[in-house]
Amino acid sequence: xxxxxxxxxxxxxxxxxxxxxxxxxxxxxxxxxxxxxxxxxxxxxxxxxxxxxxxxxxxxxxxxxxxxxxxxxxxxxxxxxxxxxxxxxxxxxxxxxxxxxxxxxxxxxxxxxxxxxxxxxxxxxxxxxxxxxxxxxxxxxxxxxxxxxxxxxxxxxxxxxxxxxxxxxxxxxxxxxxxxxxxxxxxxxxxxxxxxxxxxxxxxxxxxxxxxxxxxxxxxxxxxxxxxxxxxxxxxxxxxxxxxxxxxxxxxxxxxxxxxxxxxxxxxxxxxxxxxxxxxxxxxxxxxxxxxxxxxxxxxxxxxxxxxxxxxxxxxxxxxxxxxxxxxxxxxxxxxxxxxxxxxxxxxxxxxxxxxxxxxxxxxxxxxxxxxxxxxxxxxxxxxxxxxxxxxxxxxxxxxxxxxxxxxxxxxxxxxxxxxxxxxxxxxxxxxxxxxxxxxxxxxxxxxxxxxxxxxxxxxxxxxxxxxxxxxxxxxxxxxxxxxxxxxxxxxxxxxxxxxxxxxxxxx
Length: 508
Prior knowledge:
The chain is an alpha/beta fold and 508 residues long. It has two domains: 1-367, no CATH class; 370-506, GMP Synthetase, Chain A, domain 3. The protein contains 18 helices and 21 strands. The strands form four sheets. Strands 6-3-7-8-9-10-11-15-14-13-12 form an eleven-stranded mixed beta sheet. A four-stranded mixed beta sheet has the order 2-1-5-4. Helix 15 packs across helix 16. The protein is globular.
């Protein structure tokens, strides 16, 4: 039975790969089909009627009739959907909502996940990603063994009792057919745990004696889990526990800072790393080959794409272009219309095309400065509020600041490192750090999760700078005066290290 099932799965993956030719060979045609289906299904929605969807016949009409929006614009409609109202942004009602990092005014975003969006986008794209993996490594034995997936959890909010809320990974796991669960570990009960201490403990107890061939998840949590696993079994690397490891599907954060650590964990030249782009809003792309830094854009998976040149961001009526008009190497903000009810939605990610035939993309960052080395997605609005709160509570005055991540090492978890110039020093510097940390937890649920019991992120590292340090750095860069400012947040350490090297620094 097992051999027959595995053979069937491989046959299906071969079919998936053949179907991907539409995204590769006919991207314009597939995008037009997706667009027409979306518009047809959109006609009877309250949001569609508000913008007179009846007069929209083509993509040009659509861009004229509908504004580019963000979460704040759609939030009132999404809240109505979470209360159980039907036909708001999409036909029918929606049960599942993917919890994502918050906006400038909210701790979390709640993205509608319809049945069509779940199965025709997220799950279909997951299968297609595996199909690409098998095409690269046809001798792989993933379905003869287990795949380790570390997902989030599901919950309810008292004000929205009809809505089921959780990470998109948890929603996908919850809706996985029982026959599919046999290929994955840990068990469903463990996978759905919200207590990460208990979850990691149970995972390490379960998976050590299993034959794992692949793992998937955000690097942060995997590193935490693998450290505990190696400690429990007194092993030096994962191959000593799982000798048949073949690959890792990764996404969510930039993988560059983690690659060396994973190569130590899996010292094998045959091990394949495959990047995927699966956001709460939609599964966008997957890497065809580990030798290609771009990912194949999925053009027929229920998402209609527009691309906004980043210089258009902030304009009242920003220009967007379709797939036919993009160019290699230019930074675009990604705009989506989806079967989940997002219409001309500015997701916040910036991308570049690395290849046009077929269309390959890579993620280049966010529209605004941010820190997302560990999946925490701290934006400047978060840090500004946290700094202000900490200063107020400790009677301090802050002139300026910047922050960047400290990445995982073999001996310690990650952290955020802050450089702060004070006009007035806080009454108690340690209290300032505590208040900064607590306020970030209060306003950003992803940071809060990573800081829980310091599982992934330890207490922030804060340096007090002598007055004039930032000015000196700007002067050294020829950026003194005018509109030049210290970037508040960065996902890279280059600037922070440069400032730290200036001799007039006062370390705590």
